[in-house]
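Need a sequence for this fold. Nothing fancy.
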């Protein structure tokens, strides 16, 4: 994987959206109830993480890394 400026932007976007989701979750914890805005923040954060598939799930030749995809499938099944 060759890191590009676009990849850096995607990582920065993911960080921002994850922080927003974390803040929303902390607010829910304080209020002891789930709010609709938290679901939207989590959806946005998950979408941003999925956009990072080429950065963290492909090798330098652009081929999928089987171990990374197997781990992702395992984590999705646990939910």
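Here you go.
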């Amino acid at each position: 994987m060759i890191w590009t400026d676009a990849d850096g932007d995607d990582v920065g976007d993911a960080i921002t959206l994850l922080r927003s989701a974390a803040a929303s979750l902390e607010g829910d914890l304080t209020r002891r109830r789930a709010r609709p805005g938290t679901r939207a923040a989590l959806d946005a954060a998950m979408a941003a993480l999925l956009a990072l598939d080429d950065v963290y799930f492909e090798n330098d030749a652009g081929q999928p890394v089987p171990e990374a995809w197997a781990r992702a499938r395992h984590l999705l099944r646990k939910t």
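For context: The chain has a mean pLDDT of 89.
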